[in-house]
Amino acid sequence: MFTKAIVRLPSANFATGLTSANIGTLDHGLALEQHEAYCAALERCGLTLTRLEADPHYPDATFVEDTAVLTERCAILARPGAPTRAGEVEVISEVLGLFYSSILNIQQPGTLDGGDVCQAGDHFFIGISARTNESGAQQLTDRLALFDYTSSFVDIRDMEGILHLKSGLAYLGDKRLVMVDALAKREEFRGYELVHVQVGEEYAANCVLINDYVLVAAGHPAIEETLQSLGYKTIVLDVSEFQKMDGGLSCLSLRI
């Protein structure tokens, strides 16, 4: 059960952040409204929020998930693959000190974005991507092993449309993964029940199980209906402005 989450407001210059989406001009006012709705959803799920102020020095900083990997046993600071995001980690490190007595980190030459890390029980899938390299993935594996977690790598560097591993999958508990078709035949996921996302709804693969609810991006009725048919209670959220900046639901919080 999650009890806490860390979130950060999008800065006034959010639109100058990194993106390859090319799906329209960002509306900052709407982004603030959507972020507040997201925060309200986290509170509905039973989480107490630590709200960080926007930081104009780091326009991508609202995507706090990329700065750390949090588990019930340990916290590991990431080392973002985009150089412009490196400074985001320092503030997150200070905040995590309130919740963890020991915090590990990823060191050069490793790079690691939290969005490339999907926890499935005591196992972690780690994406090798444009943002996470082999050194970062191996360092994370070694650190997780200290706390009796296992890991496996999923190389997504040749996959179009998937920036981070969690752009294409999510864990729903009980050995069940939501997944885009492009990942579904990968050997790494053998032994898991796969919930397929329909063509055209790939963005909704980045859903988030939080306690009694699954957060789902608005505009994807097929996966919402599928999740409900499997017994999940869903909260549908419009995150269109964050999609324009290559972000999704999981990216907007660090959950403890």
The unreliable regions are none
Total E-strand runs: 15
Radius of gyration (Å) = 17 Å
Termini, distance in Å? 8 Å
Structural class call reads: alpha/beta
Provide the β-strand percentage band. Answer: 15-25%
Oligomeric state, counting identical vs distinct chains: single chain
Q: What does it look like?
A:
This protein has 256 residues and is an alpha/beta fold. Helices cover 21% and strands 24% of the residues. It is built from six helices and 15 strands. The strands form five sheets. A three-stranded mixed β-sheet has the order 2-1-15, with helices on one face. Strands 3-4-5 form a three-stranded mixed β-sheet, covered by helices on one side. Strand 3 (68-70) and strand 4 (75-77) form a beta hairpin. It is globular.
Compile the SSE list and pairings.
Layout (H helix, E strand, L loop, with lengths): L3 E5 L19 H17 L3 E5 L15 E3 L4 E3 L10 H9 L6 E3 L11 E4 L2 E6 L5 H12 L4 E6 L13 E3 L4 E4 L1 H4 L8 E4 L11 E3 L2 E5 L3 H9 L3 E5 L2 H4 L10 E2 L1
Parallel strand pairs: 1-2, 4-5, 7-8, 10-11, 13-14
Antiparallel strand pairs: 1-15, 3-4, 6-7, 9-10, 12-13
Jot down its keywords.
256 residues, alpha/beta, 3-stranded mixed β-sheet, 6 helices
Short description:
By secondary structure, the chain is of the alpha/beta class. 21% of the residues lie in helices and 24% in strands. The strands form five sheets. The protein has a three-stranded mixed sheet with strand order 2-1-15, covered by helices on one side. Strands 3-4-5 form a three-stranded mixed sheet, covered by helices on one side. It has a three-stranded mixed sheet with strand order 6-7-8, with helices on one face.
